[in-house]
UniProtKB/TrEMBL annotation:
The lineage of its organism: Bacteria, Bacillati, Actinomycetota, Actinomycetes, Kitasatosporales. Keywords: Kinase, Membrane, Transferase, Transmembrane, Transmembrane helix, Two-component regulatory system. It comes from the Bacteria. Pfam families: HATPase_c, HisKA_3. It comes from Kitasatospora purpeofusca. This is Sensor histidine kinase.
Amino acid sequence: MGVVNPVRAWRGRSKPQRSELYLRWSLYLMALAPLPLTLMINSADPDSRTDPATRVALVLGLAQTLVTLRAYRTSLDHYLNRPTDHLRWLALNGGVAVAGSWAVLLLGPRVDAASGGELVVFTAPVASTMLFSAFGPASVGLPPLRAALAGAVALVAVLPPMLLTGATLGTSLGVLTGSGLVMLLIGCSCRSFAWLQSVVQELDIAREAQARLAVAEERLRFSRDLHDVMGRNLTTIALKSELAVQLARRGRPEAAEQMAEVQQIAQESQREVRDVVRGYRTAALHAEAVGARAVLRSADVACEIDLGEHAEKLPEAVQSVLGWVIREATTNVLRHSEAGHCSIRLRREGGRALLELENDGVPAVPLPSQGGGTGLSGLRERLAAHNGELTVPDAGPGLFRLLASVPL
């Protein structure tokens, strides 16, 4: 296996995937908050670095950091409606945080204040930091009221060891009150990150649903037109055929007349079906350009169209095939890119009409949803039928350019 290029991997992700990666790692970094403070315990008192009790406190702090990372991951997955076992990890995370706080308070070094002779518990801020770091996953994986209750229970659970270290009740309550405020801030931030990612995910799902609905609506339109054309004629053909069979069995000469009418209706139906298919397969250049602008703008893609004064003067066949180019190119912009801008330009050079389409937002690596489509191959076949050609010239990083040329 080759070495993964992080820049290439980042460019190969869609915008929703980039958003989730950024927000997820923002939460993971919050789990590392207790780590530097825990390491400070080991360096606060040089004589205690080899103390087994201090080592125990250090190991618990590191374990709490690892468990918090896992709890963040499962809690965010639960918030995004993905299957996960977040409750088990939240319970383990809370237990490790409380146990680590007890160990830090009771086993960590304590420093006497220089004034007043009052015992100052140096490890109290470290213990509270472990608590509000563990509160982050709970604020994401639990409803707000339950998360607040869990945080309050954790703060109360840390009060006894703080008092046992010699801290006064006022000092202990002050530290816990400050910790509660920080926990509130951490909880709001973490839940806001999760909510933002859920909004991005819902918008991405809505965009895919909109594309599917547009395809379904077009299929319904075609089926409705086909039903209107063929329904009556096929019913008439069936009735006249049945009548002709009955007349033929009786030896009546009118059977031939009925079959002649059936033949005539079938020929008319054939012509009508061709008209329906021709209308479905014909793409007017101006209409397709206006439709492309409306569709792209609805997807928050700025679209600039410049058909000039040549569009209406082009032959009907040329307008039709260029309209198909615009239709297929618009579909590609919506399906295979994260475009923010698209331009469509038509110009005339010599005896050829040149249609150029360019958009940004093209990932360096194709998205997983991009399959080996046949859209461009189909366009080349359509253009070849008119002695035209389709090229994809180099447009630079993140850009895609399509150039269709048709002789006049």
